[in-house]
Amino acid sequence: MNERAPKRHVSTTYLVMLSVGMVVGAGIFKSPSEVAAAAGNEAWLYLAWLSGGLLTLCGALCYSELATAFPSAGGDYHFLELAYGRRVALFFAWTRFSVINSGSIAFLAFVIGDYLEAVPMFQLGPGGPTFYAAASVIALTLFNLRGTEKDESANYALTGLEVAGLILIGLSALFLVFRGVPPASVSPPAALGRAPSSWGLAMVFVLLAFGGWSEIATLSAEVKDARRGMARAHVISIAVITLLYLLVNWAFLRGLGFEGLAKSTAPAAELMARAFGDGAAVVLALAVALAAITSINATIVVGARTTYAGARDFAALGALGRWDDRRGIPRAAIWAQGAMSLALVGLGATTRNGFATLVDYTAPAFWIFMTLSGLALVVLRYKHAGVVRPFRTPLYPLTPLAFCAANVFMLWSSVTYVASLPDRRLGVLSGALVTMLGVALIAFVERRARSTG
Fold it and tell me: pLDDT at residue 8 above 70?
């Protein structure tokens, strides 16, 4: 082991695969019903998903410029350090380690547990979801300790199966069409008309389903095509994701009808049962679990790199800042991230709904730092005007401003929505408390630096 920097060995295709694996997870199995209930009719529903893809593309174009001009294993950490200084960057690295990425890993692990426990042959009792969640975190952490080059083919296979699961949902609707089965309910007129008052809530769930695309910036120092690789990966992956989401929503609408989709708590399960019978529940549970596994795996890959980058800049954080050159991974950072995720599984187990608690735990911090990263593009255009930018964000500054406005809206919406539900405040309060521990971490590393300097 040594502390050498990462090598440029990652292909653009691998980045596309990783981005799709990060984004296309459990959200698309949970969000469409909420979006339909808030959208009012099919036209506004489709517009919501298209708008989500366009806003995500705005952010991706901003990140493409940042990642090509300032490549680093830290991704957002490096951009924030250049724009706002080391304290803000370290605070972000702590938050991503302790809240954003570890929280995402934990709530996705509960998706696996919840769906497997719903299948009779996999039921373990009241503690089943927690057991499956913990086992998933442990297994996937160990899997990623094998090294990037060894698991690349497996990552392709996981993402391929995940995409196949969404295509299967589309095929389920086509199967109903070929059988001549009409929709379960009559849809409202497709005309747009006036925007529904709950349009903003619809966008909250849409953008949550698109979350995770920014994480591949942590591989910006490893992509072979240093000039255009990140931009191509971002654009291609978001186009693929948007098309998959539109396909899935069309399938739900065709198979369940608009009213049926809006009222459904598990639209994928209902569609599969309608097309193939109740026995399809097993297939669905495995498909959802596979989607969550793929997202967890991708989150582990990128999340540990931010921890490594932050620790590398502060000697007090020791082994967390070391790169295992033989395996091509930040090994200690992966261990630490796994341990933190496992602790958050424990937090989720203390509530009735571990998934909801951990979504609430991660959301506010995530949108705060996404906003800061978007503004970093504007700041760095001035602070580092002379840096060569192989890719420049189109329609600047409108693109980053639109992206930041969407992030601020998401922050406001996530906080106010959860605040209106008293039984959901544990996650938000816990996330805020852990986030603020970053202030103590900054004081610790600065004190250690003075004492050793």
Answer: yes
- Give me the domain span that covers residue 395: 12-452
What's the CATH code of the domain at 238? 1.20.1740.10
Higher pLDDT pick, 168 / 237: 237
- Flag whether 233 is in a domain: yes
The 10 Å CB-count burial string (b at 16+, else e) for 280-305 is bbbebbbbbbbbbbbbbbbbbbbbbb
Q: What is the mean pLDDT of residues 342-367?
A: 79
- Confidence at 5, pLDDT banded by 50, 70, 90: low
First to last CA, the chain: 26
Whether residue 94 is contained in a domain is answered as: yes
User: What sign has the CA pseudo-torsion 27, 32, 33, 35?
Assistant: positive
Please tell me the total count of domains within the chain.
1
The CA dihedral of 28, 34, 40, 42, to the nearest 10 degrees, is 20
| Helix, strand and coil percent figures for the chain, each rounded to 5 | 75, 0, 20
pLDDT at res. 3: 42
Q: Phi first, then psi: what are they for 376, rounded to 5°?
A: -60, -30
Q: Given the structure tokens 């590393």, which residue do they identify?
A: 445
Q: Check residue 99 and report its DSSP letter.
A: I
CB 295 within 8 A of CB 64: no
Coil vs helix vs strand at 192: coil
Residues 321-349 have a mean pLDDT of 85
Report the C-alpha gap between 71 and 84 in whole angstroms. Answer: 17
